[in-house]
Each structure stands twice: as structure tokens, then as C-alpha cells.
Amino acid sequence: MKILVLEDNTKLLNFIVTSLEKEGFTVEAFTDGSSVMEKLDEYYQCFILDINVPKVDGISILEKIRIKNPSIPVIIISSNHELDKIQSSYEIGCDEYLKKPFLMYELIHKVNKLCLTKKSKINLGEGFLYFPKDRYLTGPDGEIKLARKEILFLELLCKNRHQIFTFDEIEDYVWDGEFTNLTNIRGLVKRLRKKIPEDSIKIVKGIGYKINIE
Question: CA-CA distance, 70 to 65, in Å (whole number)?
Fold first, then answer.
């Protein structure tokens, strides 16, 4: 899972990054808001934003995120305890607001709660169930083994059932930013369709793929 963290205190930023990476997350770290604004077209599964950072503040970034994606989890971390700032954050659409100083356990718990357990299981139809938290797939005859890239691809699609994920987003998430091509992506889809209902993955011609479930 890929997380973007914005924090201008480099000591705290490094601590957050190290702690999240120990939990198995992929983290990209930034110390100023303008750098984050340039990355908003890329795919992340969670944003952790400080409010008072150089160039572009965290509230402005939250507004831009909500225009692009109303449902992606956003956690605000701030030493600003003013009620109006907290209210603004929630009104614009943050999922959690952590006041500094906080325990790292609190942050990790909120990331897990928001990003991994939003849905305990996803019904793919025809008796097939996917459990995102455990990366576990079952069918009418029991557990179905998945290769790593199959897990990552299915995990990506299930994050937002209304979103069409572009080929670039799939490359970035499933291949972890390493170069691949459409042939490899189509081959992955073909293999996965043999393990789940074929029509549960929908191709949007010239754009990418989405999960096709109710």
C-alpha cells in the first residue's frame, strides 16, 4: 500500500516514514506543499498531511484531493489545536485529525483502520469473496492461491469500485513503479480472470480497468 506523507519537521517525518515502512507500507515523503501538489495525479491509497508547511498548506492540498477523489483516506496531523482549523479539516473531508504530539501507534492504527479494514470482504459474485485485510481469496471450493502481482492488482481495483485505474496507475502500484507494458498487464488480467468470475474485471478501452461488482 502506497502512502504520501507531508511533514516539514524532518525528524518527525523520518520517524513516521520508518514506522510505516516497518509495517509493510510504501511511503513517499515530502517537506513542502508545492511538491505534493505536483504528485496528486499519481495514485496513493492514503495521505498524511501536516497543515502548516511551506509553500502550500495542508488544508489547500486536502481540498484538491477531495476534488479528485472524494473517498481516499486523508489523515491530518497538526500542532494547531484551534477549533476552526479542526472544523475546517473535517468539513473539507479529512477522515481523521491527529493533534501533535501523538503516539506513533495512534497513527498506524488509524492508517490500518481507514485503509485496510474499510471493507472486511468484497463479494466478486458466483461465490467468490476477497478479504483485503488478509489478501485472501475464496471460491465455492475453498481458498484460491494468488501470485503477488495478482494480489496487488486485485487489491488496487477493490480500493474504489467506482474508479477506473489507468495503465500507468496499475504499473505504478503492481510493478511498484518499474517499467512494464500493456502485454504484461493484459497477461496478468487474463491469469486473474481464470481464478475469479471473468466479468468481475472490466476493461475500459484505451483507459484501464475497474472492478465490476455491485
Answer: 7
